[in-house]
Design brief:
Shape: elongated
Helix content: 40-55%
Strand order of the largest sheet: 1-2-7-4
Strand content: 5-15%
Distance between the termini: 83 Å
Order of helices and strands: HEHHEHEHEHEEEHEEHEHHHHHHHHHH
Number of helices: 18
Radius of gyration: 23 Å
Length: 381
Amino acid sequence: MSVSLRDRIKSRAYALGFDLVGIALAQPSPHAAKFTAWLEAGYAGTMAYMAREPERRQDPRNVLNGARSVVSVGLSYYTLRLPDDILNDPSRGIISNYAWGADYHDLMLPRLKALAAFIQAEAGGAVATRAYVDTGPLLERDVAVQAGLGFTGKNTCLIHPRLGSYLFLGEVLTDAEIAPDPLPSSSVGCGRCTRCLVACPTEAFVSPYVLDSRRCISYLTIELRGPIPRELRPLMRNRIFGCDICQEVCPWNLRFARPAREPLFRPVDLNRAAPPLLDLIGLDEAGFHARFGGTPVMRAKRRGLLRNVAVALGNWGAPQAIPALIQALHDPEPLIRGHAAWALGQMDDQRARAALAAALKVETDEMVIAEIRGVLNSQGD
């Protein structure tokens, strides 16, 4: 019996190392209206790219002219759960699980391109394809749901009933006609569970299935390029790049998440996943690249990561952090200087107040001046 094109493509995707693969028709997203309402509510924050040509995101046929099918893949990145004594150590900065190893773009895109070439060869004729790993104008989660890769959780993550939600998603769009996978007949979802909504320290979920990115720690530590709102800084605790809290408490992950097959996603050691904050705050540009080159942490850039580290040091509030934060008051980046000033303001220490007063006399950046004055005025200096 001949093997169908769909099954040949799926077999090839699994051989390339993907954990999940499904095929959907290229059609409008069933949640296009909700996406538009989400944008209009301002929940995308400063992610202006989300609002550019929204109609393209809502229909794969607007991305690839003549598209008929979308091959959706998932790749697990879960490696381990940090021990509680590490996770809750305020002297360490917690990096999101997905960024402990190699950059997933570098791993997934070549494989997706190989899959696209396979589709072209198997389908015959002049077949158009286009591959994406979260960089294309697609509503990836909706496509994955339509392809049968899982369901949307209340925390807005795609959840697979046997793998959980620690998944990278990718797609190959094609104008080849491929029989779609049937959707699961049984209804699976979150039920009455609200653990993720309750656990979020910044209360970023407006309601189930609706995330206000402007309050999300992942957005604040990665996507936001400017100052972090002061009222949210204490709520970020020691998360310095991304946040997994809503996934850490999810029963689907607690029960089903298993270590990923991909060895390049695994951390070299615990210091890659939860580095001591004092090891990071003094990194120069070369040191930042040496430590995080080839990982997703590079997306935050040095100024973004050290901004986050300064906030975490302020939340730690330990006297041993004061000398490093005083040194950070002289960093070339105003973003780092401003958040170091805030962090020193969390310390009840004369050294911190004296350093802030001295820095105010020479500071020229208005944002940093406002941060220093805010601290000194609140302390009555």
